């Protein structure tokens, strides 16, 4: 595990964008996992801006997102498919057949989870996963308590996030919402993982995740065991880390 700290949010966004671009340039048929949310929106925009200014071939690049919301229309602006498609896949010209995402609606999500993994496996497996950190320590939509040996499945949403989604979509309480997410085991089999964290509001949970014990209570803590993992953060997110810890791991 290595740690990289950027001086501010913009520098973080640029650094994260270049992690994605570098993977694309180093392996023209790379399989790259992304994440959605406030942490990633600007970095995706920067990837798109750089590609527009300095075009490079992405015809064999495969993109996917680590998770997807279930039982909501794909057209919902908060669906991972829509966000990744509009923020990065379409702007840089990823072919539709190379954008691997599970559907948001299905009568058999267990089958869809297996098919999602099969499609990634057929392309050689994931080379890079840009992985966000949830406020309760979740990764993907693997909430606290998820077994580390979990494989791609439909997980409950964080209650606060679910409430937000229901407000925005007016989906009734009778509709069960969740998230089809790569399991922790699947995430850990990715060749390289970059945990991306920014903002003071993530400082406490980040410190617990990478300085504390590896625990089911904080799913993100499992990245401590990954053989090729970078923790990329801005100075605000790093504010609760111990100096001794940083001196040992900082890049």
Question: Could you explain how this protein is built, in words?
Answer:
The protein is α/β, with parallel strands linked by helices and 251 residues long. The chain has one domain (2-249): 3-Layer(aba) Sandwich (Rossmann fold), CATH 3.40.50.1360. It has 8 helices and 10 strands. It has helices at residues 9-26, 41-53, 80-92, 109-122, 159-169, 184-188, 203-211, 243-249, and strands at residues 2-6, 31-34, 62-65, 67-70, 99-100, 128-132, 153-155, 178-181, 192-197, 229-234. The strands form 2 sheets. Strands 1-10-9-6-2-3-5 form a 7-stranded parallel β-sheet. It has a 3-stranded antiparallel β-sheet with strand order 4-8-7. Helix 2 (41-53) runs parallel beside helix 3. The longest helix is centred in the N-terminal third of the chain and has 18 residues, at 9-26. It is globular and about 50 Å long. The relative contact order is 0.19.
Protein traits:
alpha/beta; Rossmann fold; 251 residues; 3-stranded antiparallel beta sheet
Q: Helix and strand layout, with pairings?
A:
Layout: E1 2-6, H1 9-26, E2 31-34, H2 41-53, E3 62-65, E4 67-70, H3 80-92, E5 99-100, H4 109-122, E6 128-132, E7 153-155, H5 159-169, E8 178-181, H6 184-188, E9 192-197, H7 203-211, E10 229-234, H8 243-249
